[in-house]
Amino acid sequence: MDIPSIIHSIEASAPGEWLRTSVKALPIVESIHVLAAATVFGSVFIVDLRLLGLPDTRRPVTLVSREVLRLTWAAFCVAVLAGMLMFTANAHTYYGNTAFRLKMLALIGAGLNMAIFHGIGAKDLPRWESDATPPLPARLAGGLSILLWIAVVACGRWIGFTMRPL
After folding, report:
1. Which of 16, 13, 66, 17 is closest to 43 using CA atoms?
2. Residues spanned by the domain of 13
3. What is the pTM for the complete model shown?
4. Neighbours of 105 (CB within 10 A)
C-alpha cells in the first residue's frame, strides 16, 4: 500500500468522518490537544530548568522528575491521542504541511534528546543530582530540551496558520 492510499484510508476512517461532520468535535479535540500539550511543556520545562541549575537547587533532580513525570506522561498520551484524532480529519493536508513535518521532527528530536540523556548523561546522576550546578551534559540536555519543546509549540501554532480549510 502506498502513502496516498494510507492517507486516504485514514481520512475515510470513522474518526476522520466524525471530526469532519460534527460541529463540536474538532474544537473540543483541538482544545484537549492544546491543554495536554501545554501541560507536557510546562512539566518538562520544570525538570529542564532544574537541569540548567536555575530553580530551587536544593531539590535533587530525581525528586523534581518524580514529582512531575506521571503528569508529563499522562498529558503526553492525551496530546498524542488528540493529535492523532485531529490528523484523521484532514490527513492529506497535514501530511504535506511543512509546519506539521517540522513539529514531528522536533518531537522526535525531543524524544532522542531525552533517551540520550537518560541512557548516557544520567548514568552518574546520583553523584551530581543535588549539586547547585549540574554538569555540562545535563545542562546541554536541559537547554536543548527547552529549545525543542519551544519548536514543537511554535510549529503547532504555525500549522493552524498554514492549513487549508477542510
Report:
1. 66
2. 3-162
3. 0.88
4. 14
Residue 108 corresponds to which cell in the numbers above?
522526535
Cell numbers that stand for 86 in this block: 485531529
CA distance 123 to 142: 15
Count of structural domains within the chain: 1
CB atoms under 10 Å from CB of 96, counted, come to: 11
* Spatial distance between the Cα atoms of 20 and 160, rounded to a whole number of angstroms: 16
CB 152 within 8 A of CB 110: yes
- Residues 6 and 108: their CA atoms lie apart, in Å, by 22
Residues 6+ apart with CB under 8 A from 100: 94, 155, 159
| Residue linked to cell 553523584 | 127
**Helix/strand/coil for 97:** coil
Instruction: Give the span between the Cα atoms of 42 and 49, in whole angstroms.
Output: 11
Q: Per-residue pLDDT tens for 41-81? A: 999 999 999 988 887 777 888 888 889 989 999 999 999 99
Determine the length of the chain: 166
Q: Most distant CA pair in the chain: distance in Å?
A: 56
Are the C-beta atoms of residues 159 and 100 closer than 8 Å to each other? yes
